[in-house]
Amino acid sequence: MLGSGGVFWFTSPNRFYLFGPEQHVLVWGVGFVPRRWQNAYVKMRKGVEYRGKRLLSRSELVELLQEAGVRAYTLIAPDPIVNVARAPRSRWAK
What we know:
mainly alpha
């Protein structure tokens, strides 16, 4: 459990990310397809299943935080030019 005044930092891909493919299957545009069609779309484009993954939009993430009782939070959009999945890593980050 996070103590009073504690800070929790995490990063997550956004469902509607425009600057690269969906990071689990490397297929572009998955987040823009209605959820019920996502598996068929990925299967058609890449030939693999797309089950057990649910990328969240910003509003969905805010809703989850509020439901969990998180009162203070800050959401920061990453630099869209940097593709984190392909960013060079230092020997310490590996």
